[in-house]
Amino acid sequence: MTPRPLPRPPLILGGAGVLPPILCIALVLVAPRLTLPTMIAGGLYAALILSFLGGLWWMEALIRREPRVTPYVAAVAPSLIGWIILLPPLLGGGSLRIALLILGAVILVTPLVDARIGRWVHDMPGWGRLRLALSTGLGAATILLGLIGVM
Predict the structure, then answer these.
(1) Does some domain include residue 105?
(2) pLDDT per residue over 84-108, tens digit each?
(3) Distances (CA, A) of 143 to 46, 54, 60, 100
């Protein structure tokens, strides 16, 4: 039996998931007075998606009935990492720019975690390419938002 490609909804909706950071970048460029709230919104969105990826890893480990602790630790880490990265600047004690740069970099490496702890990348044709494209788009857009935001 030939493997079926991914259905269209994940491809379309996954691509739409990169629109919020692109809109944040556009907003910073056309309305500089909104830079701070736009950077916060972009950072929160990136952290939310990072947390979502952890949920995927958790469910994938549960479906496989994974007995090792490593996949579950990796699955919980994204939520904690996103929170730890954004907490200082949101409390006034750190650079939002630096937080966005770090958050973007973390998102860029998430496909490596897929390949390391999950089998979905290998068992589902097209999944790895989709994840790589979406993580590259979101990670790069988050980094760009951090670079153009003046804070």
Answers:
(1) yes
(2) 999 999 999 999 999 999 999 999 9
(3) 10, 20, 28, 6
Alpha helices in the chain (DSSP H): 8-16, 19-30, 35-63, 70-90, 96-117, 120-123, 127-148
CA distances from 91 to 75, 78, 85, 100, 151 (A): 26, 20, 11, 15, 14
What phi, psi does 129 have (nearest 5°)? -65, -40
Task: Assess if residue 139 is contained within a domain.
Answer: yes
pTM for this entry: 0.91
Which pair of tokens denotes residue 112? 């490596």
User: For the chain, how many structural domains are there in total?
Assistant: 1
Residue 63 included in any domain: yes
Among 44, 1, 5, CA closest to 21: 44
C-alpha to C-alpha distances, 6 to 43, 87, 130, 138, nearest whole angstrom: 29, 36, 9, 20
Flag whether 136 is in a domain.
yes
